[in-house]
Amino acid sequence: MKFVFVTLFPEMIRSACEWSILGRAAREGLLSVECVDPRYYATDRHRSVDDTTCGGGAGMVLKPQTFLAALDRARELAPGALVAAMTPVGESLGQERVCDLAGSGRDLILLCGHYEGFDERILEEADLRLSIGDFVLTGGELPALCVMDAVARFIPGVLGKQVSAEEDSFHHSLLEYPQYTRPVAYRGKSVPELLLSGDHAKIGQWRRKESLRATCRYRPELLRSMQWQKGDGKLFLAMKEEEKEKSQRHRED
């Protein structure tokens, strides 16, 4: 899969993509990263890419001439790619959208904004507008890298042969269950005995119940869109009973 970043700071993108899982995936040819700098298409001696906003107001707006020329080049590098503009007014990125992008079979062009944002004529060229949350950053490079990282995890081989992105948090709208490793006991806290039993059926039930517990505790709104499975009702009731007993013991102590 190819990711093309339209960015004023290509070094920032290239540096981030040289390390860890993304770097290894790029070296193995599982994905590729290209950057197109709009400044290359600036025609004035200052190589300016922004201008004052029409109608007055603070801040500078990215000009359509340079960014659309850069987008044209990006489309040459990745014909048929989806174009996603990173902007605070975009759709809040969720796992469902990530799965859609990964499963589309299309490369991805990511438009990274700066200053007061894009001239609207740039945004009108995008297939979708994405945000990573209800807050404002100094530029679109970090959000664009987040999109790439999330999507790349679904490319076969990126996470390795034994790891599946479909087991991560938010798959089926549930948070992931707690994870443990050795030592079994550390600083007075131990790994749950069931996880050491070798009974994979019971371990699977425990993990499902703990996913329900984590989701109820930290992101209860996700339960509205979760995909219920056979037996979830019993696990949910058992979890609630455990929480009730734990609360009662706490009051008695």
UniProtKB/TrEMBL annotation:
EC number: 2.1.1.228
UniProt-recorded Gene Ontology molecular function terms: tRNA (guanine(37)-N1)-methyltransferase activity
Subcellular location, principal: cytoplasm
Alphabetized InterPro entries for the sequence: Alpha/beta_knot_MTases, tRNA_m1G_MeTrfase_C_sf, tRNA_m1G_MeTrfase_TrmD, tRNA_m1G_MTases_N, tRNA_MeTrfase_TRMD/TRM10
Cellular compartments annotated: Cytoplasm
Enzyme class: transferase
Reactions catalysed, as given in the entry: guanosine(37) in tRNA + S-adenosyl-L-methionine = N(1)-methylguanosine(37) in tRNA + S-adenosyl-L-homocysteine + H(+)
Domain of life: Bacteria
An annotated GO BP: tRNA N1-guanine methylation
Pfam families: tRNA_m1G_MT
Residue numbers binding S-adenosyl-L-methionine: 113, 132-137
UniProt keywords, alphabetically: Cytoplasm, Methyltransferase, S-adenosyl-L-methionine, Transferase, tRNA processing
GO (cellular component) term, any one: cytosol
tRNA methyltransferase TRMD/TRM10-type domain location: 1-224
Function: Specifically methylates guanosine-37 in various tRNAs.
Subunit architecture: Homodimer.
Family classification: Belongs to the RNA methyltransferase TrmD family.
UniProt protein name: tRNA (guanine-N(1)-)-methyltransferase
Lineage summary: Bacteria, Bacillati, Bacillota, Negativicutes, Acidaminococcales
